[in-house]
Amino acid sequence: MSAADEMTHGADKPWGEVSPEAARKLLVAAVEAFAERGYHATTTRDIAGRAGMSPAALYIHYKTKEELLHRISRIGHDRALEILEAAAEGPGSAAERLDGAVRRFVRWHAERHTTARVVQYELDALSDEHRTEIVELRRRTDAAVRRILNDGVKAGEFDVPDVPGTTLAVLSLCIDVARWFNAQGRRTPDEVGELYAGLVLRMVAAQK
Amino acid sequence: MSAADEMTHGADKPWGEVSPEAARKLLVAAVEAFAERGYHATTTRDIAGRAGMSPAALYIHYKTKEELLHRISRIGHDRALEILEAAAEGPGSAAERLDGAVRRFVRWHAERHTTARVVQYELDALSDEHRTEIVELRRRTDAAVRRILNDGVKAGEFDVPDVPGTTLAVLSLCIDVARWFNAQGRRTPDEVGELYAGLVLRMVAAQK
After folding, report:
1. Closest Cα of chain B to A86: distance in Å?
2. Which of B171, B176, B180, B203 to mutate to test the interface with A (most CBs of A within 10 A)?
């Protein structure tokens, strides 16, 4: 699945927040180019060409290549945080909230795997200021999952000897779906979400 | 930790199988360059320069940049397979073998995280012939873990409704250590290995 497919077929319209249309097209082209060749091997000329535009037209919307990467990373991290905070603050027992968080987080990483790979693997290419901003979003993402685990421990629903370590493992398991997921593979994003929710509930020894 | 540190301080001397010394130095330089800038943004001239050699000296040992990536990928995958097959065929109960496999596999991905990232993220840059060879090694790696899980299920030690899916998740969890592991971070490679072995034994509902 290409970044363009991810844009067109996504249930929640990724990049829908980017306007005008030319800016959105350039972002999709940038995701594809970064995923294929890496950030450093991609030029703004490559990105403009992929979007069927001139380099001058690109500069109207993005001053630098790093600005494109930052937009991609920011939107990706905002979405991840939104999914996990909604789960953390939602109704239901800790087990139900953890189940929902894992299912939705996995589905996002499977459906948007091209975007997620760029977001995860090119963090070092961000400017210091932008990296600091993204690290703060990641801290909040981590806190949302930790909150569900702590709630479950307090309620006697979970048995988790190492909450920070288990939080790290749960997030890592979900994020790595972006690396191996193959749209032509055997499992749909929903099926992976279901499998992983079950495994994570075992990791926290959730009461049945 | 840089690729050079990984070479010098590794318990089992990574790249020790590469000789002569000039070929080994070039491999270390290639891992560092690929990890920093990506495969496509790196030239053989960059790699030679990092190793303090001329491009002509590089060509004595490696005909192409792809040959360097293939050597790195092959050695990395051979080592991963060696770790997991030794665990699968070793003595002990299925739980003991799974515990050992996860500890050693995690430790390798933590200690050699720079190498492991290159090996995992640059698969698409291999030639068709080399990619086919590496995919076969990955199939055998997967089979080694699946064998331990199947042994545990047969012996009544584990309860695993979906063995292929759980195998995938166990390997993914361990591999992703290479992405997030930080040598300056809070946890040592051994501590991550211990945490993850415990979580994986819960994933398979191992009898205590």
Report:
1. 24
2. B176
Which residues in chain B have Cβ-Cβ distances shorter than 8 Å to A37? Answer: 38, 40-41
pTM > 0.90: yes or no: yes
Q: How many residues does chain B have?
A: 208
pLDDT at B158 over 90: yes
pLDDT of residue B17: 83
What confidence category does residue B3 fall into, taking pLDDT thresholds of 50, 70 and 90? low
Task: Give chain A positions within 8 Å (CB) of B36.
Answer: 124
Q: How far apart are CA A196 and CA A198, in angstroms?
A: 5
Per-residue pLDDT of A154-174, as tens digits, reads 999 999 999 999 999 999 999
Q: Do B199 and A175 touch (CB under 8 A)?
A: no
